[in-house]
Amino acid sequence: MTPPPASLNAALTAPINLVTSRPPWNQTFSSLKIRNYRVFASANLLAVTAVWMQRVAQDWMVLELSGSVTAVGITVFMQFIPSLVLMPLGGILADRYSKRMILMISQGAAGILAAIMAVLALTGHLEVWHIYVIAFVLGLVVVADQPARQVFVNELVGPRQLRNAISLNSSIFQMGGMIGPAVSGILITAVGGGWAFATNALACSVTVISLVLIKPGELVKSPPMKHSKGQLMEGVRYVLRKPTIFWPAVMAGFVSVFGMSLAVLMAAYANNVFDSGPGGYGLLNTLVALGALCGALASTRVATLRLRAVIGAAGAYGAVLIVASLAPSMVSFGAVMVVAGFTVLLFLTSANQLVQMSTNVLIRGRVMSLYIMVLIGGQALGGPLMGWLAEHFGVQSAMLVAGGVPVLAAITIGIILARRGQLTIKTNFRSIRRPLFIVPKVGA
């Protein structure tokens, strides 16, 4: 890794875990031994389940009200465009102020927005433009919430347990992704999507209560950043100087724009291709989350963080989406979605770990805000784009593009890294597991 800027204390940079053996199985959930993290994680499971419920209900209600896949993409755009434009400001807030207080305020605001959606839906007054406006305001809330949430994990568990906690957070998110879409699909069919919004409003309240219950004295706090000029550009220069941050962010850009609008494409598959309705859409989301949960748990077993593994996981995800574009039935498509969830979570979790572990704690809020800006903001562009492609060229063609672009990006970045790192590709066709592998060049 390149050294941090001179203005930062290099001693505060958490070292990358360089052990060569996998952690024992009894360490898979080691970060849950910390009381504050247990409280946070328990509430987080309920919260992410409710968020997934709201997300599925929101997408399906837009599709029902408008009859347009493009409208679903516009909803994604409205929710994520604030992240594309304003996320670095959220990073500055996270470095300057209490992450716990920021999360309490942001979750309270998210709960109010969910309650407004619930009232409009349950009274029969919800219109597409209402969803657009509330999605945009929720996007503003995410600008403050996400950088603080990412950095707060380090305060909860400390640098030694950070990698494990990141993996478990991904596991929790995907457990919610397994439960939420299925429950939301049942609710939409039985009583309407308004109750999914009401559930999310209640879950946000529980999250605020959990943050109140966290003991401040047990947090591993870093000193707050003082106000000065050029702090945002300091974060940008830091990202550009560190390959273990820059290249995962570049790869995340391609994946987020093209590959992470999967919800938009699955809505089109459920509605237009397989005619499976909201229950089928919820099932597809659950299958993706099932694979993603397995991927998140698998990431806790990885011994060493490697940049080439991060890029390889992104390329594998793209390849799986290409296969999905050829799936002839709901059953085969659903099976491929499980694998898609597994590969995308391996990429997202390993990239997040590598970026955080490579970043000095004094600048981590700004760095993570830039990374999240690429990851979430890219979806603001990708949602309408993939919806438009699906509507005008067919959902199978859109899925082919969603997978093909990340594959090409991964190959290109891999070639660049190979040349800069003096690496070479070796072949061993006698091995089924590793017919191709990368090794250092002789004399490098």
UniProtKB/TrEMBL annotation:
The keyword Cell membrane applies. It is a multi-pass membrane protein. Keywords: Cell membrane, Membrane, Transmembrane, Transmembrane helix, Transport. It holds the Pfam family MFS_3. Residues 36-421 form the Major facilitator superfamily (MFS) profile domain. InterPro entries: MFS_dom (IPR020846), MFS_trans_sf (IPR036259), TM_effector (IPR010290). The keyword Thylakoid does not apply. The chain crosses the membrane at residues 39-57, 69-89, 101-122, 128-144, 165-188, 194-214, 245-269, 281-300, 307-327, 333-355, 367-389, 395-418. CDD domains: MFS_MefA_like. It is found in: Cell membrane. This is MFS transporter.
